[in-house]
Amino acid sequence: MRIPEVTAEGMAAVDLSEVNLFDPAFHAEQDPHTAWAFMREHAPLHRQELPDGRFFWSVTRYDDACRVLGNHQEFTSERGSLLNQLGHGEAAAGKMLVATDPPRHNELRRPLNKLFTGRGLARSEDRIREAVRALLAPSPDGGEWDLAQRATMLPMAVAGTLMDLPEPHWEDLVRWTGMAAAPDDPVFMIRNGHATLAIAHHELFKYFSEQYAARKGAEGDDAIGVLMTMRDGELTLEEVVVNCYSLLLGANATTPHTVAGTVLALLERPEQFRAVRENPALVPSLVEEGLRWTSPASSFLRHAVDDVELSGGVVPRGDAVAVWVGSANRDADVFPDPYRFDVAREANRHIAFGYGAHYCLGATVARITLRIFFEELLRTTEDITLAGEPRHLASNFVAGLTSLAVRVTPRRPETARGGHTETALSA
Ligand code: HEM
Asked: Is the CB of residue 251 less than 8 Å from the CB of residue 261?
């Protein structure tokens, strides 16, 4: 998704009847950020109807976004949490973490929490650093390479390790999760969006069913083992499989876009890049600003359990509401000068990882991945330049890049090895 400066002239030109937030191509080719800025100001609760009669409400302000995502008594996740599911319902309601309301949600989530936040992550760190080094390695001919494409493999060092998935399977899994997250993007599409999604679901469900069968009776202490043995093995094959699917999709669909989008933001703002190069202690705040700026999980869906009043009106009971995360993360009431990418931004209360009970299970490990990526980027590169026009993902769910061609000047080995940067960062 393009992230332009939002200007008064741009806002004045917005005609909401022309804004189609449902259309994946709108997010790749047009300018949702200017439309969202207009909506925050003039239409904070906006109804969009599709040609087939389905409709949904959009919320764009930060406080409304937190309320819709965070209050399961008012807004349920059990009728689908993705805009693509509008009108289709949710077959995995009450089974898959993200499609389950509390209290059942807590029962499913509690056993996984430890693995995703505690010492379980220590063994992932080395794998992540290894994967980041491979990602940043110069291309064999010393020329340009595509950062967005290479970054797609990075989350497998996280999810692959946490789920104990064999490395030779990773490439297929990345392709299938890419198809599932953005079936309408030309990079992933096979025939059409529906067929692409169906193929991706078929392959991923078949894959995890086979993993289940192979592990039955000899479950490990990885995430799949935790799901299989949870509450004395209470979960059915289907419940284990949909949660494996959701875990992998959660990891693969998001982190690479924050990597590529944050690098693009730095390339477009040399003074900000210089600031982190000169002061690597800014890496943690760079990571938070990169998350706010890119907001790769772009929208989540909920359905109103009752009539609920939000800014701008009442959502009638039963209606679908889309929360636009990238818009909430640019609400000027919460983020001073929200269209400024600021590597030193303080009190950055972004909701890139969501809000409330469904707050991202992978947030800690995603932050570790991003921190390691930027540490290694600063440590091993002297200079990076853009080597082509970035290509944006066509999706109403994930905001990101499918191509970011770069030319990288590696740092001379003696500086990279013994340099101040490494000492400072690995302390
Ligand atoms: C930059 C990286 C990431 C971003 C921006 C992100 C964003 C989000 C958001 C916004 C939600 C809330 C969904 C909702 O409210 O319906 C969520 C949930 C979730 N994420 Fe992430 N995510 C990231 C990385 C990961 C990773 C690395 C994993 C797994 C290893 C993961 C697994 C999940 C799962 C399982 C849920 C559902 C949690 C629940 O329903 O309790 N995510 N994520």
From this structure: no
Give me the pLDDT at residue 142, please: 76
Give, using CA atoms, the residue closest to atom 40 of ligand 1: 98
Atom 6 of ligand 1, nearest CA residue: 353
Please confirm whether the linkage preceding 111 is cis (ω < 30° from 0). no
- Check residue 123 and give its pLDDT: 74
What's this model's pTM, rounded to 2 decimal places? Answer: 0.95
Q: Is the C-beta atom of 39 inside 6 A of ligand 1?
A: no
Q: In 6-72, which ranges are E strands? A: 45-49, 55-59
Q: Which is it for strands 391-392 and 405-410: parallel, antiparallel or unpaired?
A: unpaired
Q: How far is Cα 39 from Cα 350, in angstroms, rounded to an integer?
A: 19
Share of the chain above pLDDT 70, in %: 96
pLDDT value at residue 420: 37
Provide the 8-state DSSP code for 4: P
Q: Is 98 in the pocket of ligand 1 (CB under 6 A)?
A: yes
Q: What is the DSSP letter of 359?
A: -
> CA-to-CA distance for 310 and 82, rounded, in angstroms?
20
292 within ligand 1 shell (Cβ under 6 A): no
> Is residue 365 in contact with ligand 1, taking CB distance under 6 Å?
yes
Cα separation, 361 vs 373, in Å, equals 20
Give the span between the Cα atoms of 54 and 308, in whole angstroms: 20
Binding site membership of 100 for ligand 1 (Cβ less than 6 Å) = no
The enclosing H or E element of 78 equals none
Residue 6 DSSP class: P
Torsion of CA 297, 299, 300, 304, to 10 degrees: 160
Give pLDDT tens digits for 385-413.
999 999 999 999 999 999 999 999 988 76
CATH class belonging to 8-426 = mainly alpha
Q: Where are the domains of the chain?
A: 8-426
Query: Which residue(s) pair with 145 in the sheet?
Result: 406
Q: Phi first, then psi: what are they for 18, rounded to 5°?
A: -95, -5
Mean per-residue pLDDT of the chain? 93
